[in-house]
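To illustrate the input format used throughout this study, we show a single complete record. The first block contains the structure-token representation of the backbone; no residue identities are included at this stage. The design step must infer an amino acid for every position from geometry alone.
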């Protein structure tokens, strides 16, 4: 019999493909080769499964982000690391698909327990940007808007692979559409694009001890 973690993995795939409303416990049970009674006994109802999927993903990302704050010193490297953590991990396309559905639905099915984890994610970026400002390297920017830019670009890249490949097949040779990046390289490129907008020119950068 599959472990609870394995069953949650299966549920994540179903939620990514069908969304919360379209997912069915029968489908999860069939994919996990168990009966529905076992699902209810071991995890709970569909809401409990959805919560378990998101809590596991967000908890892992928050832990990595908060570790990053204590281990990565360079402000720009922090931003790049933040972007990579947003987009990588196990099955990034599944997580991104789930979150894009939630954004489109206005978070209608988003469990309350996920909101504090999302806030901690945003706080990690806010602290990263504020350090860059304190070091005289970044312009002051609105951290939540920057957060939305990174989340939006990273989640779209993680989910639109099939569309990218169709566009690449029709694009002329040498087109930028012919270049497929790994999710890590894409995250770095997205972060570098954003950094080009928030970074102060070298001649205007000042250390924290120089005003």
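Output of the design step:
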């Amino acid at each position: 019999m599959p472990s609870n973690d394995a069953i949650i993995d299966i549920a994540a795939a179903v939620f990514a493909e069908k969304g919360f409303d379209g997912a069915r416990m029968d489908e999860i049970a069939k994919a996990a080769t168990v009966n529905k009674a076992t699902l209810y006994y071991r995890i709970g109802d569909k809401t409990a499964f959805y919560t378990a999927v998101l809590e596991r993903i967000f908890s892992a990302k928050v832990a990595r982000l908060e570790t990053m704050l204590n281990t990565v010193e360079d402000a720009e490297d922090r931003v790049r690391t933040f972007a990579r953590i947003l987009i990588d991990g196990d099955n990034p396309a599944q997580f991104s698909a789930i979150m894009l559905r939630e954004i489109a639905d206005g978070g209608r099915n988003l469990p309350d327990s996920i909101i504090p984890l999302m806030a901690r994610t945003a706080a990690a970026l806010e602290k990263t940007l504020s350090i860059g400002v304190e070091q005289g390297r970044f312009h002051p920017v609105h951290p939540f808007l920057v957060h939305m830019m990174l989340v939006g670009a990273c989640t779209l890249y993680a989910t639109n692979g099939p569309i990218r490949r169709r566009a690449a097949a029709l694009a002329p040779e040498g087109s930028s559409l012919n270049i497929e990046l790994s999710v890590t390289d894409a995250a770095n490129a997205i972060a570098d694009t954003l950094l080009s907008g928030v970074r102060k020119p070298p001649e205007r950068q000042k250390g924290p001890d120089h005003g």
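Structural context for interpreting the output: The domain at 47-210 is CATH 1.10.357.10 (Tetracycline Repressor; domain 2). The chain has one domain: 47-210.
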